[in-house]
Specification:
With about 110 residues, the chain is an alpha+beta fold. The chain has one domain: protein bp1543 (Ribbon-helix-helix fold), CATH 1.10.3990.20. About 55% of the residues lie in helices and about 15% in strands. It has three helices and three strands. It has a three-stranded antiparallel β-sheet. A hairpin with a 2-residue loop joins strand 2 and strand 3. Helix 1 packs across helix 3.
């Protein structure tokens, strides 16, 4: 399940539409997914956090959907959930530090 960036008309992988297309082998079939680069960044971070490759993360997302939601939408939701979890962790850390400092210090 190797990730293979698709050809794009602009340098840096972004297409004219602002989407970056990546190709994957999912359940024995090649498929391409086009997402904004910011989503690919968050998905790569989610894959690292889970200790898997981006291809494995995409395959798991594909296997976990019921087919009524497009894969691109499912991946955007996965990225959003990961970003929200990271944000909550960061906020929790800040909140904990403020709580530890005592009243009037947070």
């Amino acid at each position: 399940m190797a990730e293979m960036p698709a050809e794009n008309p602009k340098p840096g992988g972004a297409s004219l539409s602002g989407l970056t297309k990546r190709s994957f082998s999912l359940a024995g079939h090649r498929t391409s997914v086009a997402l904004e680069e910011a989503f690919w960044d968050v998905l790569r971070d989610a894959a690292r956090a889970q200790g898997v490759t981006l291809s494995a993360l995409v395959a798991a997302a594909d296997a976990g959907r019921d087919g009524s939601i497009p894969l691109a939408s499912s991946l955007r939701l996965l990225a959003l959930n990961h970003a929200l979890e990271r944000s909550a962790e960061a906020a929790g850390g800040v909140r904990d530090a403020a709580t530890a400092a005592g009243p009037g210090h947070g």
